Amino acid sequence: MMLYKYTYSELRAGYEAKDFTVKEVLASYIQKIEENQNLNGYITLCLEQALQEAKKADENFAAGQPRKLEGMPIAVKDNFCMKGLRTTAASKMLENFIPHYNSSVIDRILNEGVIVLGKANMDEFAMGSSNETSYFGSVLNPWGNDKAIAPGGSSGGSAAIVAAGSSVAALGTDTGGSVRQPASFCGITGMRPTYGLCSRYGIVAFASSLDQAGPMTRDVADNALLLSVMAGHDPKDMTTLTEEIPDYSAILKNPISLKGKSFAYIEECLSASDEAVQRNMQNVFALLRERGAIVDPISLKLQKYAISAYVLISACEASSNLARYDGVRYTHRSQNADKLSNLYNESRSEGFGAEVKRRLCIGTYALSASEYEEFYLRVQKLRRLIYNDFMSVFAKYDLILTPTSPSEPFVLGEIQSPCAMYAQDHMTVMNALVGLPGLSIPSGLGAQGLPLGLQIIGNFLSESDIYALAHVLEKEIAFQSWLKK
Amino acid sequence: MDLLNTLKKVCRTACLANEQGKGMPNVQEIKDIIDMIHLISEVEVSHVEPMYLPTEELLKNKPMRDDVAQDDVATNVILANSPEQREGFFVLPKVID
User: Fold this and answer.
1) What is the SS3 assignment for A161?
2) What percent of chain A has pLDDT over 90?
């Protein structure tokens, strides 16, 4: 039995029917991880611990007391702190960092029975859209076959692992598209929830007003289930929301009717996309209209400033957050420093990669006394205008649809200019800037036979509506995953 | 504006090496990024309130927890990841010759 091909819902049914054990499922994953080593998806594995957890999970099933995610193998992006397990954020700076505590999201999922297989590769400090900035090397997209195709980023390792059968699910983080774009590139499902739905406590900080944890899975049902467990108020993160979290997977039991539902698509996003992406989106619109939904074009004039605003805000926040890496307490320390003042500069210069340094420079520059008003203050005002635009759209429409990425996945090394790489996040930064949720589901294949993604953006706390639509579309589109193709 | 000198100054402020060939970012790439972020100056924002946290409305009137220090991590745990330590302290290069 190729148990690694199952979704968690399928595994769960098998566990309960006693068709197979958690231990057997884990053995299947361990073999697959071995076979997939060339993808470079994991930075650190913890399989011995996982085997112990599998034994416990089998006991819980035998006792009739399985928890919500009992026996769910999962990969964790390497920016979630896990007690006793190396957490690097894919940086030389944290190459040997072993946290003494779990991030709150990790505590939540461990309490419900997940089995962590290891820590997933990513762009350094989550800064990138191709996984090429990782200190531990690039990740390969399993769809590439003989070509070195980018898995997307920054949660590229998480996406490639789930797509290739090296885990049934993964945790990612999304600052400007880092869950959704790699999910799209690897043909899986990835959710960026409403800002504040999941705790950021214990996640290596990049840009605090944007960072959000999100689930990455092979289908919508698993995604909804995992988010139901990840989400919730945390006194350790005062930006988490206190609203009650619905059981998102329960909502999926009764598929919604699309009749009378109203969806908007952003013209600026569609026109900025490749022909194959545009065609794919038009197919989705036609499908929705056939089912009685209204699909209208809208114009968001500020869309053209979204990348600039995102790069600016995230760089400013990064320059402040990454000031903690000083070579003194828990990070890489240069051996070439004879004085304290040199220690900071040398350790940071050796420990950070080129993309991180670029962003630190941009952030430091934009926050300097002479530039602050021109950049930082101005962009926060622009943020409110973008927020107002979204609110006026949601006064009229239920959800917004965009491609997740303007093009098919690209070849590793193909994009050299930093600005061209930032433009890869064209579709995903706008809602991230204002804290709105967005889900990417696979929507077909492009001209090169590589996956395309559809993004569904909703109003604050509209995850249930997003999942409900995604669930219907998933069935209609019937995308063949890499594992099942 | 002499961008190279500005970049060197910025690197110093950010505690990064500020010499070309020693890991200082490429001046042209930095210029391209600054030009890109400068696009936002086209938008009229003079009478707009800044928005630092997008969920400010959702978080309005939410109770804050008490600001109490938690002293529950032992010194040896804090020091465990330190590159160099001695007698419960971080060891650093000398400050005074």
Assistant:
1) helix
2) 98
A178 assigned to active site: yes
Cα–Cα separations (whole angstroms), residue A216 to A49, A150, A230, A469, B83: 22, 17, 12, 17, 35
A135-153: pLDDT as tens digits? 999 999 999 988 999 999 9
Architecture in CATH of A1-485: Alpha-Beta Complex (3.90)
A98 token code pair: 């072993």
A475 annotated active-site: no
Find out whether A263 and A424 touch, Cβ atoms under 8 Å.
no
* Interface touch A382/B45, C-beta < 8 Å: yes
pLDDT at position B1 is 57
Which among B41, B77, B95 has CB closest to A378? B41
Q: How far is A153 from chain B (nearest CA, A)?
A: 19
CB pairs under 8 A between A and B: 178
**Identity of the amino acid at A221:** A
Integer Cα distance of B38 and A145 in angstroms? 40
Tell me which residue of A352, A330, A333, A326 sits closest to A99, measured CA to CA. A330
Kindly report, residue by residue over B17-53, the tens digit of the pLDDT: 988 888 899 999 999 999 999 999 999 999 999 999 9
Task: Look at B54 and A97 and tell me if their CB atoms are within 8 Å.
Answer: no
Cα–Cα distances (Å) from A480 to A187, A219, A277, B17, in that order, read: 9, 11, 17, 49
Inter-chain contact B50–A383, Cβ cutoff 8 Å?
A: yes
Q: CB-based contact (8 Å) between A337 and chain B? A: yes
Residues 6+ apart with CB under 8 A from A424: A129, A130, A177, A181, A405, A406, A415
- d(C-alpha A322, C-alpha A126), whole Å: 12
Determine the residue of chain B that is closest to A423 in CA distance: B36
Place of tokens 């996640």: A203
Contacts with A324 from chain B: Cβ below 8 Å: none
List CB contacts (< 8 A) between B13 and chain A: 364, 368
Instruction: Give A323-336 pLDDT, tens digit per residue.
Output: 999 999 999 999 99
A370, burial (CB in 10 Å: exposed 0-12, middle 13-18, buried 19+) = exposed
